[in-house]
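--- STAGE predict ---
source: upstream dedup step, 1 unique chain passed
mode: sequence only
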Amino acid sequence: MKIAIFGGTGRVGSMVTNLCLKEGYEVYALVRSYEKAKSLIPGAHHINGEASDPVSIEKTLKDCDLVFSALNTDKTDTLSAATPLIIQGMLNHGINRIITIGTAGILNSRLEKGKYRFQSKESKRRSTFAAEEHEKAYQALNESTLDWVIICPTYLPEGGSEGGVRYEVNQLPEDGKRISVTDTAAFSLNVIKSGTFHQTRIGICY
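--- STAGE serialize ---
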């Protein structure tokens, strides 16, 4: 299987990329820095460009079977700008399946019906910019015809695998406080391999 990856040099993205390579998948990663990519994901095919550039996206998607995106907000609108371009590129290339990393903030609130977690008392973050960017990406995917999955981890510290990952469709499991980057990447790989979940958000935590 050939996988197009966006955000492949980030914390989760680089780990998922390397896990995919170990599985024997062929990976095409859109990167802004060759040097960083060579260091973090040396086994991938590196396409130099920007996630906000349709031409770079088209080059990355060519001949791929599936898309994985770990694009983050990085205090910019890159995520909300890139997502519609990726969707259109996938339609152009006949690619149907996309798995992305979101945030627990865009899951449904348990306490306040009709609100996202970032809009409710469940969120302790003062700034909502990142969550709003992820919400825009979610809406773009939700309005598309693609087979999409948004994996939504809660607080993401560094650390190894602890196991015992819990998940829930469209909500964060009760009392979920954190999940490591390692276990988030492992969960993502399982979704890639198994083809489970369709057109939904998945909250994950310990």
